[in-house]
Design goal:
Structural class: alpha+beta
Number of helices: 10
Strand content: 25-35%
Number of strands: 20
CATH topology of the largest domain: Rossmann fold
CATH architecture of the largest domain: 3-Layer(aba) Sandwich
Helix content: 25-40%
Shape: elongated
Distance between the termini: 61 Å
CATH class of the largest domain: Alpha Beta
Strand order of the largest sheet: 6-7-8-3-9-10
CATH superfamily of the largest domain: P-loop containing nucleotide triphosphate hydrolases
Oligomer: single chain
Largest sheet: 6 strands, mixed
Length: 362
C-alpha cells in the first residue's frame, strides 16, 4: 500500500480551478518532485498536503489515515518554504530547537536532537549566530534542520533553493538528497527547474495547468516524453510536424500527418564530412545559422531546407562550426520519438516512400 495517496484532489479559488482531479501514489522513503512552470498548481498541492490549504474535494491519505481535514499541526508533516521563515530574534540553535520546545519534551533530549540536526546540516560553530548574519545557503540549512529535527512523517520542500546562486545550489541539491537518504524520510519537492528535478528525484510528476501531464523516473521522463508540453519542458527537444520531418529525411510518411516528432538536441550529430550510411539512421545536410555556448555545451542552430534544428555538442576548441558552415547531420531512427505514442518504430515502418539522398548537392 502506498505511504501517501492523493485521490481526485480538486482546489478552486473562486472561479479559478487550480488543481484538477489530481491522483498520486507515493511510496515510503521516496524523493518525489512536482515539476512545472509558475502557476501550474504544484505549490498549491504542497500546501494542501501540509494542511495549509483546504481541498475543495478529494482525499489525502497518509499511511492508512485520512488526513484530508486534519489541522496542519496534527499531520506530523515538516515543511521548508521558499523564504525559509526563520525567527529573526532567535539564533541558529533556538530556531532549530523551537519545534521540540513546543512539544515540551525533556530538555536533554531537545539538546541532543538539536545538536544532531545541526551536525547533519554542517552548521557546527554557527549555533549562536542570528539569521541576519547567515548566508542564504546557511539559512536554508537552518530551515531544513528545523523541519527534520521533529522527525516528521513527510518532508515538504517548496522551491527552497530558488534564491541561491548556481554553484551553491548544486552543492545543496546533493546535501539535501544525501540527508533525505540517510533519514529515509518521504519527501515531496517543488521546483520549476528541470535539471534540479533530474538530479534529486526518484519520481517526477510534471504539472501543466493544474493537471499531471506525465509521471515517471528522471530517465524515462527525459528519454520518453509523451506530449508536446513534456518534450518542450524536459530536454528542450526539437519538435517537428510530420511535414517538417519529411522535409528533413526525404520521406513521405503515410497516415501520420497529424503526428509530432521529437528529437533531443544531443542525439543530432554534426560533421563536416558525410557519415557512413546505414539503415538505422536518417542523414541530411544543413547550414549553421547560430551557435551559443551553454557551459560545457555548444548549442548550434542549423537550417535544413527552412527547418530549424538545435544540436548540442561538447564545447571543444578543435570542433567548432562557424555560422554559414555547410554541415552533415545524422540521427538514429530510434531517437526520433512520436509524441503521445512512444513507439519510435512506427516511424521506421510507417511507409516511407521515395527516400532520397538528403546529402546530395554538397
Amino acid at each position: 500500500m502506498p505511504y501517501i495517496q492523493l485521490k481526485n484532489l480538486n482546489k478552486t479559488f473562486g472561479k479559478n480551478h487550480v488543481l484538477k482531479n489530481i491522483s498520486m501514489d507515493i511510496e515510503k522513503g521516496q524523493f518525489v518532485t512536482l515539476l512545472g512552470p509558475s502557476g501550474c498548481g504544484k505549490s498549491t498541492l504542497l500546501r494542501c498536503i501540509a494542511g495549509l490549504e483546504d481541498v475543495t474535494s478529494g482525499t489525502i491519505l497518509l499511511g492508512s489515515e485520512d488526513i484530508t481535514h486534519k489541522s496542519a499541526k496534527n499531520r506530523k508533516i515538516g515543511m521548508v518554504f521558499q523564504q525559509y521563515s526563520l525567527f529573526p530574534n532567535m539564533n541558529v540553535y533556538d530556531n532549530i530547537a523551537f519545534g521540540l520546545k513546543m512539544k515540551k519534551i525533556d530538555k536533554k533530549e531537545i539538546e541532543k536532537k538539536a545538536r544532531d540536526a545541526i551536525a547533519m546540516v554542517g552548521l557546527e560553530g554557527k549555533e549562536n549566530e542570528y539569521p541576519s548574519h547567515l548566508s542564504g545557503g546557511q539559512q536554508q540549512r537552518v530551515a531544513l534542520a528545523r523541519s527534520i529535527v521533529t522527525e516528521p512523517k513527510v518532508l515538504l520542500l517548496d522551491e527552497p533553493l530558488s534564491a541561491i546562486d548556481a554553484k551553491l545550489r548544486k552543492s545543496l541539491q546533493s546535501e539535501i538528497k544525501k540527508i533525505q537518504s540517510q533519514l529515509g524520510i518521504t519527501t515531496i519537492f517543488v521546483t520549476h527547474d528541470q535539471n534540479e528535478a533530474m538530479v534529486m528525484s526518484d519520481i517526477i510528476h510534471l504539472f501543466n495547468n493544474g493537471t499531471i501531464e506525465q509521471s515517471g523516473s528522471p530517465v524515462s521522463m527525459y528519454t520518453s516524453p509523451s506530449t508536446k508540453f513534456a518534450a518542450s519542458f524536459i530536454g528542450h527537444y526539437n519538435i517537428l510536424t510530420m511535414e517538417e520531418f519529411s522535409t528533413l529525411v526525404g520521406c513521405d510518411f503515410e497516415k501520420m500527418q497529424e503526428k509530432l516528432i521529437a528529437i533531443r538536441p544531443e542525439v543530432l550529430d554534426i560533421s563536416l564530412k558525410p557519415f557512413e550510411r546505414d539503415e538505422k539512421t536518417y542523414q541530411f545536410t544543413g547550414i549553421v545559422v547560430d551557435n551559443i555556448p551553454h557551459g560545457n555545451v555548444l548549442r548550434y542552430t542549423i537550417d535544413v531546407n527552412g527547418v530549424k534544428l538545435r544540436s548540442d555538442v561538447l564545447f571543444r576548441s578543435f570542433r567548432l562550426f562557424e555560422n554559414g558552415t555547410p554541415v552533415y547531420l545524422c540521427v538514429e531512427k530510434r531517437n526520433c520519438l512520436i509524441l503521445s505514442d512512444n513507439s519510435a518504430a512506427e516511424i521506421v515502418s510507417s511507409g516511407c516512400r521515395n527516400l532520397a539522398s538528403a546529402t546530395e548537392g554538397f
